[in-house]
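Example (one chain per record):
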Amino acid sequence: MKPHGGIFMMTIRRPEDFQHHFAQLPDIKLHYVREGSGPAIVLCHGWPGFWWEWHMNIGPLAENFDVIVPDMRGYGESEKPPLDQIQLFHIDRVVDDWAHLLDHLGIDRAYMVGHDYAALGLHKFVRKYRDRVIKAAIFDPIVPGFESRYLSAAHFPESWYSQFHQLDMAVDLVSSSRQATKIYFKHFLSHWSYNKNLFTEEELEIYTDNFVKPGNIHGGFNFYRANLSLSSRPWTELDRTISDVPVTFIQGMGDTVVPSVWTDLVASWYNNYTIEYVPDGGHFIMREKPDYINRRLKEAFLGATQ
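Predicted structure:
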């Protein structure tokens, strides 16, 4: 915190304050941030986000871990596949990207943490790459059965944007000006948070800086076209098996887009897990409750009482 005109304001680490790297993988070039030393922990973002949504977690976790924070394909500084080839944005491709990134870095096993789209991806990763996972933490779990609830008419007041993203005009409208981009993404960052005024003006500008870069709006929208359209088939047969990976699920009770009552689906797919509920948390729990998340990840993964 720093004083400004008699008012204490939050000091944040901006994107340029981190160490940036690129990895050329078999079919994509991924950007990632890396910091710290110790066992590897991979922090995986969702939408509307990019690697920087973990900016309040990277430093504290780097005290105990080798923290690796990638941009998914189509997001941030990572390469964009051809935007007209929707199949290249399927979450299964992202799952393979994470495994290839570990290969690139010479890491056999890691702690995996995911939120939003990465929650969907980690459900797949802990099955397809079981031997690469030490333990996992998933915020707002997305598991088989989620999609029918998410895309239902009853939930449409919250999930409408997923169908808006199917339209070609959506990219044109949201990218029509910097102000349009900022207004659109501010809506979700505010509405999905427990505290609707959580994100500072500086943070909103940083998110806008990211999404006005070429391909970033379109790339993010393509994830909905590939994975959460009315005709999408996000799950494989393997995804519908029970996992024994130790998983800590953390759910904000104030999350409106992935409601806490949907955690009833978890028990069908996992047999070695805990679920923790945060009464005054929303969808962006790593930003809303950073001290709690940083402490709980250390406790869950290392058994350390912080």
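Caption: The chain has a mean pLDDT of 96.
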